[in-house]
Amino acid sequence: MSTHLATALDLASRSVPVLPLRAGKVPFGNCPACRDNACGGRPNMKTPGPCHCPRPCHAWAAATTDPATLTSPVWASAWKQTAAVAYHPGGTGLTVVDLDHADAITWARQTLPATRTVPTTRGEHWIYRGTMQSANAVRPGVDIKSTMVYARWLGPGNGTMKTLPAAVRALVVKEPSRIRTTPHAVTVPAPAGGGECPHRTPAYLDRGVAMAEQRITEAISAVHATVYRTFLAVLSAHGRCGCLTDVHVGRLFAAAQAKGETVRHCDDAWTNALTRLGL
Question: HSE-up of 158 (CA within 13 Å, CB side)?
Answer without folding.
Answer: 3
